[in-house]
Amino acid sequence: MVDVPDSLPARMFLLAYDLRKQKMTKGGAPLGYVLRAAALAELYLDGRLGEERRKPVPGTPGHDPYGVLAQIAESRPRSWQHWVRKDARATVGTVRDELVRGGWIRVRPRRVLGLFRRQEVTVKDPRVVKALWGGASSALRGRPAAHVNSYDAAAVALAAAGELNAVLPGADRRRHKRRIEELTARTGPAAPAVRKAIRARNAAIAS
User: Fold this and answer.
1) Structural domain contains residue 138
2) What is the chain's pLDDT, residue by residue, as a tens digit (207 residues)?
3) Is residue 206 part of a domain?
4) Nearest-10 Cα torsion for 68, 88, 182, 51
5) Hey, is 10 helix, strand or coil?
6) Which domain holds residue 53?
7) pTM for this one?
8) How many whole angstroms separate alpha carbon 8 and alpha carbon 5?
9) Cα–Cα distance, 70 to 63 (Å, whole number)
10) In a domain, 162, yes or no
């Protein structure tokens, strides 16, 4: 049995790693959107975050590893989409550093074309990614949606919403559309907010 990270954002970061190409894969949404949504979904699934008038609100007090709950508590009511976008870039670095400290990944700086600095990520044990992918695959094709592990259901919902092709290629998203909708319903409002954030971002780029 292979150990996997406890947090949903850490799991989604690793799922975004393409083992075949040995690098992070790009989806339709920036990785930060997916990781922020994962943090929101984790809080929602654990009851630390609720919803009123289609906006997230603090729920049962508890652990807030990424500071998302504190941000929501200190702000006026805002949409899920707002909180998916909020500090998205910084969240990538936070989760990446968490995985480095935990020994899950190795990061080294490199320059692209000799000019642009970027972080090159390597997963230390590919079996971890395979185990996470196996959980998502089972959620997509296995037992009734109501009986699927909540984090595996969330992984599928977030991967589909963020268009992470390393996890769910477009053909699979179309083939399993109804199943993805069932798993998304179990996960809460964070995954649909990623789709809205993608549409808003694409519209802004197009204009």
Assistant:
1) yes
2) 789 999 999 999 999 999 998 888 877 778 999 999 999 999 999 999 999 999 999 999 889 999 999 999 999 999 999 999 999 999 999 999 999 999 999 998 876 655 667 778 999 999 999 999 999 999 998 778 888 999 999 999 999 999 998 888 889 999 999 999 999 999 999 999 999 998 888 888 887
3) no
4) 30
5) helix
6) 8-197
7) 0.92
8) 8
9) 10
10) yes
